[in-house]
């Protein structure tokens, strides 16, 4: 076997997407399926991911859907077993499941704070533990973790979310060093402001207040937000990079509106 043959990507690369019931996760599942990846969708809202998987199959892709709660060790283990049984050994993990509940850091209950850390950080570690060792053994694979621009520029009234994403990036940066030479790539995709179900769940008055505070601190320089498809495109670029190329961190931000000539 030549060196190029040894390090070639297989023709079939099953991919797992967590938090796939809406937003970035759903669009990533669609984008990867269009690019030829068999996809396993995981989320708590089983009806939503089954609907998305069915649409992917109608369009000619290969997709399965199984319930997944990233705060539960047992749920993660069961999901991983089903995904492998359906599609084969997983080559790509997109750790996207996340949540944010805005509020003043001093007022947010420790339970609410901890819940965000459990999903956004510990949940990512649970799915890493489920799929990472197999990738290391096979000497190939992509681990993609969805972070946020709050990891580098924390926003007021999002203290728990910022803490969880800071922690996530710390974990992945350590992981990248640990994986060097294994053939497994760990990548961070860092979205800027994005239209998603996370923000849609906020009460309108609270969302307006929080946005005003972002403007006050210069963290919302213009009104444009990303569409989830933009992040799906970025993730697809990361995992389709040829072997020997590691896109370690990628920032994706909304372009400002074009200013009219004066």
TrEMBL record:
PROSITE patterns: ADH_SHORT (PS00061). Belongs to the short-chain dehydrogenases/reductases (SDR) family. The keyword ATP-binding does not apply. CDD domains: SDR_c. NCBIfam families: PRK07775.1 (NF005854). Keywords: Oxidoreductase. One of its GO terms (cellular component) is membrane. This is NADP-dependent 3-hydroxy acid dehydrogenase YdfG. InterPro entries: NAD(P)-bd_dom_sf (IPR036291), Sc_DH/Rdtase_CS (IPR020904), SDR_fam (IPR002347). It holds the Pfam family adh_short. GO terms for molecular function: oxidoreductase activity.
């Amino acid at each position: 076997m030549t060196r190029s043959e040894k390090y070639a990507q297989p023709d079939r690369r099953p991919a797992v997407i967590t938090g796939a019931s809406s937003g970035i996760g759903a669009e990533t599942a669609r984008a990867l399926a269009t690019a030829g990846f068999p996809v396993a969708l995981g989320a708590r809202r089983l009806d939503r991911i089954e609907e998305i998987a069915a649409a992917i199959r109608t369009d000619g892709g290969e997709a399965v859907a199984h319930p997944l709660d990233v705060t539960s060790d047992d749920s993660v283990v069961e999901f991983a077993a089903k995904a492998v049984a359906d599609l084969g050994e997983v080559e790509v993990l997109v750790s996207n499941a996340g949540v944010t509940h805005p509020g003043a850091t001093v007022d947010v209950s420790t339970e609410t704070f901890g819940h965000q850390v459990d999903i956004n950080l510990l949940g990512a570690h649970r799915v890493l533990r489920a799929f990472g060792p197999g990738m290391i053994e096979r000497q190939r694979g992509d681990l993609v973790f969805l972070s946020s621009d709050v990891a580098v520029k924390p926003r007021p009234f999002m203290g728990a979310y910022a803490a969880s994403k800071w922690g996530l990036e710390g974990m992945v940066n350590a992981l990248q060093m640990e994986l060097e030479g294994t053939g497994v790539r760990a990548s961070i995709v860092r979205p800027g402001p994005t239209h998603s179900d996370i923000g849609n769940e906020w009460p309108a008055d609270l969302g307006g207040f929080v946005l005003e505070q972002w403007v006050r601190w210069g963290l919302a320089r213009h009104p444009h937000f990303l569409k989830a498809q933009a992040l799906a495109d970025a993730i697809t670029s990361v995992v389709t990079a040829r072997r020997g190329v590691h896109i370690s961190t990628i920032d994706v931000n909304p372009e400002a509106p074009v200013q009219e000539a004066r």
